[in-house]
Amino acid sequence: MKTILIANQKGGCGKTLTAITLASALAHKNYKVALADADNQKSALHWLKQRGEQSPTILSLDWRNEKSIGDAPKKLDYLIIDAPGALSGEHAEQLISECHAIVTPLQPSFFDIDSTRRFLKHIQDIKRIRKGKVEIHLIANRVKANSSSSKNIQDFFEKIEQQPTAWISERSIYSQLAMQGLTIFDRNQKNILAIQQQWQPLLDVLIDDPTDWF
């Protein structure tokens, strides 16, 4: 089982959107996948309750209680963890001890960029990170093409010498589908297929699967 933690210390940067999108993509590839919600806001759990039986199955895990962290069914292929905001201290170490990769989404705003800078600096002191046992992938989320904010976020990536694994554009379809317990991977219209392609670079680095995703 490979465990992927979706984390940043700032709320509203797109953690839950990233978590449900990845889980849905994996479910559609017939992987046995679970989504663990470690955030007290329960956004991922609420989304899973809206998901109909006709959609590929994503197992639901409630990890809001720290004592529940690590509890997962056997024979899972992938476990996606939606981390809480303000992730730090022992809670951060506990969640990171469970994961093989961290995906950190951030929006092109001063607050997201500043928060992400501090988050990345903080987790460098955690043993598994320091020993290189955890991959860290950044996602530029809700980006508007040719905007001044997109230039700011590019400057940030250049400064930390780490480019984002994927650039995800701002689209209202994400929230529209989420209200139904769905993601873009639950639809196959031509215009949505183009949006799915933006996630391909992230899927390529996280998932060892040479077959076509779309």
Automatic annotation (TrEMBL):
Identify the PANTHER family for this entry. COBQ_COBB_MIND_PARA NUCLEOTIDE BINDING DOMAIN-CONTAINING PROTEIN, P-LOOP CONTAINING NUCLEOSIDE TRIPHOSPHATE HYDROLASE
CobQ/CobB/MinD/ParA nucleotide binding domain location:
4-177
Tell me the CDD domains matching this sequence: ParAB_family
SUPFAM superfamilies per UniProt: P-loop containing nucleoside triphosphate hydrolases
Q: Which Pfam family, giving just one, matches this sequence? A: CbiA
Which superkingdom does the taxonomy of this entry point to? Bacteria
What's the protein called, per UniProt? Answer: Chromosome partitioning protein
